[in-house]
Prior knowledge:
Elements: H1 2-10, H2 14-26, H3 29-32, H4 51-57, E1 60-65, E2 74-79, E3 90-92, H5 106-112, E4 117-120, H6 138-153, E5 157-162, H7 164-175, E6 180-186, H8 203-213, H9 216-226, H10 232-242, H11 251-261, E7 276-282, H12 290-299, E8 303-308, H13 315-318, H14 320-343
Parallel strand pairs: 3-4, 3-5, 5-6, 6-7, 7-8
Antiparallel strand pairs: 1-2, 2-4
Helix pairs in contact: 5-14, 8-11, 9-10
Amino acid sequence: MVALTASFAAAPSTATITMAMTKKRSSGAVCYAELSFPSFLPKQVEYIKDTFARKLATRIDRLPVAVSFSDNSIMSSCVRPLIQSKTNPVVLLHGFDSSCLEWRYTYPLLEEAGLETWAVDILGWGFSDLERLPPCNVASKREHFYQLWKSHIKRPMILVGPSLGAAVAIDFVANHPEAVEKLVLIDASVYAEGTGNLATLPRIAAYAGVYLLKSILLRLYVNVLAFTGISFGTSLDWANVGRLHCLYPWWEDATVDFMISGGYNVSAQIQQVKQKTLIIWGEDDQIISNKLAVRLHCELPNATIRQIPDCGHLPHVERPNSVAKLIVGFVQEDCYKEIECVSQY
């Protein structure tokens, strides 16, 4: 337990993160020039002010993933771990139409706590190379993630899914239980019946709706719903972080393909999940009701639930220190139990 305490004594708190952001911003473009971004990222990454987003963006890599639905390997974006730990790796998914940059605050805390951590972009979103556009339906997303795991991660994961990423995680673990040791679901969007009526839209209407998704105004409105209270300047910068991947020429095609495919409908798969599961929920989530957190807790056979006060829909963005502590404790709890058993003999 001493090691865990020490790790978090050194890890930055939410307040520390905020102060670091302010300090870095005040230093201006000189600080920004020190960072070298991968050439495949949209050039607009240079205009993002968020220091943590910029730093994580420098670590985004592309790995080849061979899939049955494409003649060529898909160069797939992710952030790879710098360390290998004795515990199984933590693999972070993201929410709907987002990217690995969603983990800009929590990822470094997990790494500082000694966890081997991946942040993976779901097929069709994020920063993968989709110039030869593959299908981006649920089955393709699942196979792509499985092949990435099989080729590069190779060990049972502690799989973390926020918002729609929780549906991705449940669909994945129901089909590939051998790949997942434990599950963490954050403000889980798992009871929606796919994309609903959007799946029946004419393509021209679907493209119009998808085009709206990348607008600054819509992203600002979503930030109002998702977070308990941030300044306009922060909200604007976070909107630019959230829509960066939308600037690829294939993003609209990939998102429309997902929309008309019907999307995720995983409510019937929830009880198939046998893995130990940690449910994390922002107490002030205005997007998904806390009642659904209670329902999910009841339906998962081996789950615990933890609420984070004064927090909205994305705790890993808004309360990274709290989320990191919960994940680290969940990952390491069995190790401590083993140590306690051994010490009794």
